[in-house]
Task: inverse folding
């Protein structure tokens, strides 16, 4: 429902390989940790974005998207829905090409703003589930 036809494949296969994962910490019990592993196994560079700026899966972390000193292709969002819109706006501001709101992360106004800014957008989906579906 929150992804236009073909957009999931476009983001995963054609939008670029640098994924900033907002909410990713070294806590192995959190979903972001496992999803980041899946993304890495599929050739993505995973950049942790968390206030603690921890190194996770061998990649240096940053406290915010604005702190990342290189281009980001996709911003994968693991924060509560009420915080996700601000992250989407930051993704637009840093020049990301796509935003991905994880399962349960829903902000329809942010979805509309992000799409209007020209970014690809998926909401309430998980790339760790979608990648195997692509075959």
Result:
């Amino acid at each position: 429902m929150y992804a236009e036809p073909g957009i999931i494949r476009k983001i995963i296969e054609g939008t670029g390989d640098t994924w900033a994962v907002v909410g990713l910490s070294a806590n192995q019990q959190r979903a972001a940790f496992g999803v980041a592993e899946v993304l890495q196994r599929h050739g993505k560079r995973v950049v942790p974005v968390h206030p603690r700026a921890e190194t996770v899966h061998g990649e240096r972390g940053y406290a915010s998207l604005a702190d990342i000193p290189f281009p980001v292709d996709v911003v994968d969002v693991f924060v509560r829905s009420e915080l996700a819109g601000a992250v989407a706006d930051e993704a637009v501001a840093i020049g990301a090409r796509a935003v991905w709101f994880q399962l349960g992360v829903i902000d329809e106004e942010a979805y509309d703003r992000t799409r209007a800014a020209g970014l690809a957008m998926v909401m309430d989906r998980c790339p760790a589930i979608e990648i195997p579906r692509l075959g």
